[in-house]
Protein: BGH3 protein
Organism: Aramus guarauna
Amino acid sequence: IVTVNCARLLKADHHATNGVVHVIDKVIATTTNSIQHIIETEESLETLRAAVAASDLNSLLESEGQYTLLAPTNKAFEKIPQETLNRILGDPEALRDLLNHHILKSAMCAEAIIAGLTMETLEGTTLDVGCSGEELTLNGKPIIVNKDVLATNGVVHFVNELLIPDSAKTLFELAQESEVSKSTDLFRQAGLSSHLT
């Protein structure tokens, strides 16, 4: 599937005497803002703006290149426990891993996304990008609330849920999500849970 500034290419290579015509399904608007500028001006990305500044990713998101930012909204940050959020925001390495987990290495418009697509993030992990009817999905969840916000250096999709990579979790958080959750309970009962956090 080929897109031009997120407009889908419907028919290609109509040759004329003075050139060639490609038919697309949208009017292409002028794009003048970088991904960083979109973050700075969008009210619903206020928490993300602060996180990007704290992790020193501003220069990357305004540099030349082609990225996809899965931008967590303020509501996405509000969904995780305050204690967890404070821990990540206070740990530069975990914060950078978290944000890099939301950046894909290439620009990916919604029209070009098909079911079962695996995309690599800047953090080095992968995300399963797909679609369910009209909705886009990430790791099987329809969490993209606003898609195809074009920038000069890529595209932004707004997401209403935070995607936390394993590298930004404590041992306790990882254990709770895995097959050793009963062991976690034993650590807690023995008064040793602080070692896992």
About this structure: The first strand starts at residue 3 and ends at 4. The mean pLDDT is 88. The radius of gyration is 20 Å. The CA atoms of residues 17 and 23 lie 17 Å apart.
